[in-house]
Amino acid sequence: MTPAAGPGNRTATNLSHAQRERLAYIEFRLYFTGALGRADLINRFGIAPAAATRDLALYRELAPNNIRFDGSTKLYRFGVAFVPMFHRSSHRALIALSHGFGEGDDAEPAALLACETPALLCPPPLDTLATVCRAIKARQPLAIRYKSASSEETERVIVPFALVDTGMRWHVRAFDRKRQSFREFVLTRIDVLNAIEEEALLHERPEHDNQWSRTIDLELVPHPRLDCPEIVSRDYGITDGTLHLRVRAAVAGYMLLRWGVDCSPDHNLTDEQYRLWLHNPMTLYGVENARLAPGYQEPACPATSSQAIN
């Protein structure tokens, strides 16, 4: 969230971090719920009533058109000439609206509006997640016991470097010393044995993971079978007929599966969930998890196509 300059004598950029956080919260509540009171600031930040009053007065000084005081309810309300002073993405706004603002403990934060989001059916154990994250930050190997879908439980050493959200489960991208290759491991299948006090070797680092380093261009269009492609274009923010996305090869298959994109060369998937079609399926050539992309077919002679080279 980037603060912009306000119209008053002071600007949000020369305030302390704590002040900016409180002013951003004031603006968020005004913008998305239409009103807030001193109690909202007091409860959110644990500040005294006098401090809450000063913050509200400061916001009014910086952005007088954004806020008005309703004496009948003792609430501050959305201003009719509102112009946001802080820049925030829709993605971050939706997270705050649906999950609330965390309080730093085990209490479940309350959503600011009625909202339903898909539940993560099996979140990873917190201690496993914390241990993996520490190893990522320290660039250290982990000795683990892992249960894969196709084999018995095995012990191995991995060098983790990134978390991956597939939309269904959380994985960790890591170098696997047993297989001598980079791959994903499902966090719920990991039992950490111990952290190894050494640094990752040069060839085990993410810059040597070709699938992670490689980015591919996806050209998504409304599915040709649909009678009203303009509706799909509006749903997905397609403004010129094609939605262009760049993703890592290491996650492309997961993303296309999650988004329900028909990746068949002749757009032959007709089920209702396929509202988008991958216009350039050859871009998936050489992507290790392309098999996860709905309808994807490995080209017979990919080397003859200019699209096969990325």
From TrEMBL:
Domain WYL residues, every copy: 128-191
Coiled coil segments of this chain: none
InterPro entries in alphabetical order: CapW-like, CapW_CTD, CBASS_pafABC_assoc_protein, WHD_CapW, WYL_dom
Name by which UniProt lists this protein: WYL domain-containing protein
Domain annotation DNA-binding transcriptional repressor CapW C-terminal dimerisation: ranges: 216-281
Organism: Paraburkholderia acidisoli
Ranges for domain DNA-binding transcriptional repressor CapW winged helix-turn-helix: 19-92
